[in-house]
Write a structure and sequence with these properties.
Mean pLDDT of chain C: 84
Number of helices of chain B: 6
Number of helices of chain C: 4
Helix content of chain C: 40-55%
Number of domains of chain C: 2
Strand content of chain C: 15-25%
Chains: A mainly alpha (about 700), B mainly alpha (about 200), C alpha+beta (about 220)
Low-confidence stretches of chain C: none
Largest sheet of chain C: 5 strands, mixed
CATH topology of chain B: Four Helix Bundle (Hemerythrin (Met), subunit A)
Largest sheet of chain B: none
Largest interface: A-C, 49 and 43 residues
Order of helices and strands of chain C: HHHHEEEEEEEEEEE
Number of domains of chain B: 1
Structural class of chain C: alpha+beta
CATH architecture of chain B: Up-down Bundle
Number of strands of chain C: 11
Number of strands of chain B: 0
Mean pLDDT of chain B: 91
Oligomer: heterotrimer
Shape of chain C: elongated
Radius of gyration of chain B: 20 Å
CATH superfamily of chain B: Cytochrome c oxidase, subunit III, four-helix bundle
Strand order of the largest sheet of chain C: 5-11-10-7-8
CATH class of chain B: Mainly Alpha
Order of helices and strands of chain B: HHHHHH
Structural class of chain B: mainly alpha
Chain lengths: ~700, ~200, ~220
Amino acid sequence: MRHFWLGKLDSHALPHAWFTIGGTAVFLLAALITVIIITRMKRWKWLWNEWLTSVDPKKIGIMYFIVGGVMLLRGGLDALMMWLQQALGASNMPGIGGEAAHGYLSSEHFQQIFTAHGNIMVFFVAMAFIFGLINYIVPLQIGARDLASPFMNTLGFWLYVGGVLMVNMFFMFGGEYAATGWLAIAPLSGKVFSPGVGVDYWIWSLQISGVGSTLGALNFILTILKMRAPGMTLSKMPLFTWGSLFSMLMAVTVFPLLTATLFLSFFDRYLGTHFFTMTAGGDPMMYTNLIWMWGHPEVYILMLPAFGVFSEVVATFSRKPIASYKSNVIGMAGVSFMALSVWLHHFFTMGASTDVNAFFGLMTLIVAIPTAVLFFTWIATMRGGMIRFETPMLWFLGFVAIFAVGGLSGLILAFPPADFQLHNSLFLVAHFHFNVIGGVLFGIFCGINYWFSKFTGFKLNQRIGRQAFWCWILGFCLSFIPMLILGLMGATRRLDHYDASTGWQPFFVLMLIGGIVIAIGTVLQLVQIFASVIQRHRLYDATGDPWDGRSLEWGTTSPPPSYNFTVIPTVTSFDTFWEAKKNHALPGPAYEDIVIPKNTAAGIYIALFAFLLGFGFVWEMNWLAVVSIIGIIVVLITRGYNEHSEYILTAAEVEKNEEKRAELHKKRLEQHKAALHEEEMGLVDFMRYMLKLGMNYIRQKRRKRT
Amino acid sequence: MNEQALTHHERLEAAANDRVKFGFWIYLMTDLLMFSVLFACYAVLHGNHVGSPAGRELFSLPLALKETLILLTSSFTCGIAMVAARRGNKNMTLFWFAITFILGLLFLKFELTEFRQFILEGHTLKTNAFLSSFFVLVGTHGLHITSGLLWMGTTMIFVMKRGLNSALVRKLSLLSLFWHFLDIVWIFIFTIVYLGAFA
Amino acid sequence: MKHGQTKSYVIGFILSLIFTLVPYYLVQHKVAVGRNLLVAILGLAVVQLIIQVVYFLHLGRKPTPRWEIGFLLSTISIILVVTAGSLVIIHNLHSNMSIPDQEKTLVNSEAIYQVNGKLTGACQMIRANHQVIIKNNTASPRYVSADKCDTLTFVNQDSQRHTITFGTHTTHSSYAGVSEFELRQGKPETITLSETGGFNYHDHQRPSIAGSFLVLYNGQGQ
């Protein structure tokens, strides 16, 4: 009976190690504080109606940023823990805490950390930010009011949140995450090596968020292909939209492969099938083969929207249209076309014959060509331009430097003979981080710095932004250049301790220092946001076009109304907005009826059931899984046959709303003028401000008491 | 119809209809890709029966043919039902969908009978890689049929209640796409799994 | 128009029936065998796919189905990549490397040396290095004793090439997923001793060059 209700769950599963207790405490504390704050501010209804159930892609985009940002800190903490362990992990160092011979983490725990780090950074940080950016910017860039299916969009977001919860659930129940590396290669992920629930958590967190990503991608494709403003042919589309389109096309192609593979892996563990087992005819190589069919395109899925961001930024900050728009689009098309033809380079050493290895090695080398084309278009854009070194441009330049090294190290790995030497070394790990941090993460930071005023109505602080940028660059070089060298010295990846005689320790210490500098950079980015909020009047984006931008999103106010445009603009050329601006021919106000989708909580309910479904399968509570499936079906039916999912905002109402917004704008403009004399806050100013704020608070409390 | 004669709202609705259909089409493509993994696994693993009987000794071709013909007929009746639905003929629509529904159930019944017989003989999905990939491939298709039946049933109930309004006709047309698509997947299961076992 | 739709379904139904029964007949009556039959029935299935796409899904008849067709065609090509790619690759991998060797290599290249306290067989770090020098057609030392996860370097100081093969001359075997490698002058080869036990190696061309090494598990993690 007990087994029926609780499955494998028992008191042993509750937190008992320092990190599970700590993690649980942090989560519960954070939840408690949030609840208290919202309750005291009486904002529950507002939160539910304005945000959680919202179908506005702009709000969903912001929510992606928030959850993704929290996960970035969580994944970053994992990275710091690993760097610390490796710096302490030499054999001549005394073990700390007694549980490990070297360093302060046990090997098992260290492995769980790098697995979680990889999953969180790829799935719950990079994907989240990319989806957030696309959600917010793409409809604005193509002159659409909304996404094709607003409901699918919230559903995708909430499934992503379900995945986030699932990946962190092990703190509270089970106490172990997968220790198998971020792709959980069979047979390590099978029942023989991993009998616990860690791999199940891995499977279900990826499964739930993966389905969300598929839905999101499908929705973006529909939006981009079918909802562009009149006159905007494909060849007049902004480059970020192009990058997103290619990325999402790849996503709908490969995420189904991931879903199917994860199901098979789950069947192996849950039903006892023999797809990837070592016995009864199963074939672990099939898993490796299938997972990399998804895994390799996945990094391109992350990369292409970032390429798009860079194309926008470099054109804007060089005050020139992108050099050779066509080459740029063809370059991106080339990269995505190649995505599904290189996956074998992840297992060159597994016995493929020379011809096969040579083919995939060559294919991998060919990817460099379209990428180089992209690089050349960016460099050519800068040439002869009037470059402004604002933060977005800095992130772009940082990307150029770092990604080039990442790409070149990738070329080395693309040669099968070299790969035989390097494939399980830290060289590979460094290569990957050069590309993913230098490319994807810098692209995300670049995009956020660029579009921040669109999101909030005020620009980001540039002074602290620059400092944050330099910390990141410096920290990155300090931690990942030694990693490249260590790889060449023979240090294997996933290393938690090593012999002191190898002489590796100084490099690992250097990496730790670099990690700390990166952490400082991250803190500075948070400070940058807070300082900008404090000085929001000073940084107010009065025109909606603070950078003198070129594409349609700069034609709306910052932030835009929920319907994006009062009247959908008509596009005549690639640079319509820019030309209209320069010729002072921007359209005047006009109003029309607008169909607005109603808010819905169905996405939340489905994601909740999906989470419970996963949780039920992790702990073998079959009744919970069955109930969840029924729940999902019921919600889908009630939602699907609801014929009142939208309402019409009449032209008169739109006009009234616009008048209200204009008044608010007037007020803000006055505050902005009054604050213009202020200097942009630096780090010291910020600290002084916070100190003053704290003192005032204490003084007030004291006054109240007396 | 004349493009100019349409009102703003009608044009918006037509565009929305077009999007929904196209979106569903992309969904079907993703589903096909999921099946492609299962087919790939079957193709790679079908020889690994480790001492247990191979497909040739297990499968019954006449049964497979029977299932195929039933599903094909249901795909046809589903199409006929859609013709009636587009004409706005509620009773004929319901009649033909009811036949499709019954044929779908019949298909499922035969499939489950086959599964049951295998399991009773001791050939379960735990036996070996070949049977794992067989059960999962065919079972996934069966699961799709089941969800299709569920969808068909609910839509029919709503048609009875609300009549054939435009939203429901749109749903029915998506459903028919889904049903045809399942038949196409089955063609390949029939060819690769059943016929292929005897080749 | 409306009548035409019914007609299209009827035509599709009849054609599909034919293209179901023909392959069934071919298989039932063994008109062909083996690969030929497989190719034939797959071809017929593809024809039926096209029939159903045209007559049931009505693709290519509506005014603007270009995107739909584009997606269908690209999906089909990706399905081909996935299925044919898997078949070719897996077959290729298995024909070049035995499955046990593959597992050892796979586990080793994941560099995860233990899960749940259970050793996987992978070396998580490299320890001491041992050397075997091949000169004047003899290997010295002939016998090496090492701990697990040490490395063993073969150095060729002869002018000619050697093909180092694991196992004895009569019974070839493999070590940690490798069965043999070329050893040229001035190009030492290093292997990681991830497998414990006693092993032999020899030069396949000159069996007089032979030696052995013993790899012991030192018991202290790795």
